Amino acid sequence: MTQRKGIILAGGSGTRLYPITMGQSKQLLPLYDKPMIYYPITVLMLAGIREIAIITTPEDQAQFQRLLGDGGQWGLRFEWIVQPSPDGLAQAYLLAEDFLAGNPSAMILGDNVFFGHGLPQLLESANARTDGGTVFGYRVSDPERYGVIDLDDQGRVSGIIEKPAQPPSYYAVTGLYFLDGSASQRAAQVTRSERGELEITALLESYLAEGILTVEKIGRGFAWLDTGTHADLLDAGNFVRILENRQAMQTGCPEEIAYENRWISAEELQARAKLFSQNRHGAYLSELIN
């Protein structure tokens, strides 16, 4: 079976979060007790993906590399790709074409947080589909901010519309995309929209037109959070804080997933715990060993 590779799109200018993103990348901002990018990394890890391309702006790449290294501390391998200018989500597949080398992929946006019992099983199901694509629909109160799923009278997906003024449904497409090995080739056929961008919806429409796009609706038991506004950023941080304090379990912890997957040893986990010995993250990692 061909190994699926991961992409994290962590570029963009973050203008909606100015002035806090004027000095650093949005995806490096703290989300409660961890950098924001930890959360999409752990989603890909839960899907069993160990080779990940991280796409950043030229200005921010060194900061990401200082934080994340080569991924070896978590049993991963990171490849670094520069996004010269933010030209739309579909651009990621063009930038990562050499990295993907025809392999299927899972791309996640660097500012998205997913949480829910059964999330690994949901990811495993999407990962098992080697042909076509899988995206996830989530009911939101403000669908006009997202790509929206258009449903026909029988509840089947008939289209995906980018930021519609009059949304045809409340179901937004989340920032997580499982696509087959033809994604880069298809992205090369996407033309710029009226906004001047290579829209991910146009790429997904090519799969939908051939009847090979699966849309999984995420139910009530899941949370999907993005951090597009200052309020969203605060809400996501509070959500994580409440979960962790209530359950005494961490969210978005790459060391925990790597250890449970046996990608790192107990000795390697202990070294990470020692690194964070001055805070509760280190104590949590020590508890995992004991």
TrEMBL record:
It catalyses: dTTP + alpha-D-glucose 1-phosphate + H(+) = dTDP-alpha-D-glucose + diphosphate. The keyword Zinc does not apply. The keyword Cell membrane does not apply. GO terms for molecular function: glucose-1-phosphate thymidylyltransferase activity; metal ion binding. It comes from the Bacteria. Its cofactor is Mg(2+). Residues 5-240 form the Nucleotidyl transferase domain. InterPro entries: G1P_thy_trans_s (IPR005907), NTP_transferase_dom (IPR005835), Nucleotide-diphossugar_trans (IPR029044). Keywords: Magnesium, Metal-binding, Nucleotidyltransferase, Plasmid, Transferase. Pfam families: NTP_transferase (PF00483). Its EC number is 2.7.7.24. It is an enzyme of class 2 (transferase). Belongs to the glucose-1-phosphate thymidylyltransferase family. Catalyzes the formation of dTDP-glucose, from dTTP and glucose 1-phosphate, as well as its pyrophosphorolysis. This is Glucose-1-phosphate thymidylyltransferase. It comes from Paracoccus saliphilus.
